[in-house]
Amino acid sequence: MSKITTELLLERAVPRSTRLRKIETLNLSKLQLKTGDLDPRLFSRLRHLQKLDLSDNLLDKFPNSLTLPDLRVLNCNNNKLEDVTALKQFPLLEELTYENNVYLTLNDDYKVMFLLQNLRLLNGKDITKLANHVRRVNSRKLTSKVTAHWEKFFRDQLPEKYTAEQVKSIKKKFLKSVQTNVVYGPSSLSEFTRWRVKMIAEEFLAYSLGLELNTDPEPEENVDENEEESTESPKEAAEDVSQVVYVYDLLVTVTPSKRKRNHSKPGSGNKRSKSQANTKEEAEDVSAEPLHFLQCHSKGNSREDFKTQLWSCVFEPLVDCGARKDPIVSSSRTVATCGGESVCLIDCETGTVLKKYKVATEEFFSVAWTTLTMVISDSRKKSHNILAAAGRRGIVKLIHVAADFCYGEIKAHKKPIATLFFSPTQETHLFTASYDKRIALWDIGIPDCDYNFKASQLLVLEALSIPLRIALVPTCPEQYLLAGCEGGCFAWNIKLDKGQKSRPFEAIFQFPDEDGDLTTSHRVDGLAFLNDDVIVSKSSKPGCIYLWSWSRSFDAKGKGYQRTVSAVILAELEWSTTDLSYLTLSTCPAKDYVFCGDEKGSVWMYNLSNYTTAWSSAKGKRSDKRISPTQILKWPELRANGEQLREVLINNVVSDPTFTYLVVLTSVNVTAIWKKS
Predict the structure, then answer these.
(1) Which segments within 348-487 are labelled E, that is strand?
(2) What is the pLDDT of residues 517-573, one digit of tens each?
(3) For 651, which of 77, 136, 200, 568 is 20 to 30 Å away at the CA?
(4) Domain boundaries in the chain?
(5) Which regions does the record annotate with the repeat WD (predicted)?
(6) Ranges 163-167, 303-307, 351-355, 603-607: which has the least confidence
(7) Under the phi-then-psi rule, with left for phi > 0, alpha for psi from -120 to 50, and beta for the rest, what region is 581?
(8) CA distance 653 to 311
């Protein structure tokens, strides 16, 4: 039996009423209501209801026929809503709140802004301007793109005289193709974009071919051609972000050409317009150009903070969520960065800081992503990206990004955590490398619908010195782990079927020192795999980065069961002669690229695609000469408060998997984003 009766409705009316048709305000909060309790036959008698409070219940969706024709204000906070499209049945709705519904995202905000033409306030914020953009400019842009896609790829496929079966077939192909290929706005809104594209495509086909629509047609609107584009989120509006993101007057110098940036005032927003090349053609093309320079990790949001060190950045993985998997983008545009007391999520294309997490007593050193398959309700499963962040306090924070919720922490070490790394094969397995000279493997568990979870320690790897960088061997990620440490490069067997929970290293690798002699004692502050076998490490010799073979080096260990083995070096990369440490490197395996920053603010880029085939041979010889960088991206003349920023160290450089964006983290609290030309 439903929990809602006529008597309950009359009693919960504000003020109490004797007739359902007279109720204008109704409070149904904190009744443990589920979707099935909302009886459309009973609600249809609330013809004059204007304000409805359904907060603090257990609703996962709305029935499609509640028939509340005069509803203006709706509160759905603290439920379990998964979809908002049923709200279109309340066309007069002006104020809507649904905070703390963890499965609703920014995409749902945009959906309700489009569906509810009278909506003014969403989650307490005025969305009038943004909603107008979504309904008008966004719709106009997408309609233009959908129409162009039809004209270019599908119009000629339909014969002059066509059958119903032919129309059905081409409709199916067109809808699939257009949702895959029409792209607009940031990747964080890709689900909304596909939803709108499908809607527009169905309307287009209905108009062009006389097909029946699956949904009600979108009302025709006048488009203001001068309306500005915006990606403002009602949850995190632009004015909130502008408090922490400052944009400066700057002159960007890129070898071999100069490019000048447009003037932007601090607080005017965090979008940067691209500059146009203003020089003669050069022999060598510029392979990447600066896109954004952001100051979003300031301590206490201070615009004077140019001391906070930025350490780690990782691109968000795509979520495989069945029908919700994004087929458009081969890699995400969203990157997580950390430094000082905060972790930020940034859209690389727009420069928008999408989210920011702060812990006043922390200094974050590392971030890592995983995708967990969580049970959401009624035993249904759904994939969600989880971000782990850790640093000086030795505590791992676990953040459910879509829900804007830090749901737990793991007190992993008593000393700082230098780096984090999730297993690519076991979604809940997290490695933490600490200043206590240990690397721990944790099973972080999967949180239930109330975010209860249980973490357990599976393994402890004993190091002789502080581990700085860790990497799993791609061909056997559940068996071997490499670590670059303060005192050398080590390998451990991490197979969990071995009984030993605390393990010493199995091998330590020797490299040439400055005199050409082999040594194991050196700081390895850069370590990454370029492919399944080739390791890139930065260590003992200033001005040099080594490339070496995992299989050929570790085979030597296997033959003699030695604890000390010589790295089989394939090549050396020419790099800065600085003796400064902790300027780490990264790789882009899909493009055979290596990146490393230096002490002058430059980014050294190496395209090694011409070498990898030779190195894969069992008899591949070492390259005789050091390999020079393909290009060096020079630090631009960046001015803050009228003064040029100097003494910029590049702590980290990371590209997305397709090398479209390059994120550069500095010692002066500036995140630089470059885009490949």
Answers:
(1) 352-358, 364-377, 380-391, 395-400, 405-411, 417-422, 429-434, 438-443, 456-462, 467-472, 480-485
(2) 888 888 999 999 999 999 999 986 677 899 999 999 987 556 545 589 999 999 999
(3) 568
(4) 6-209, 288-315+332-676
(5) 410-444
(6) 163-167
(7) beta
(8) 9
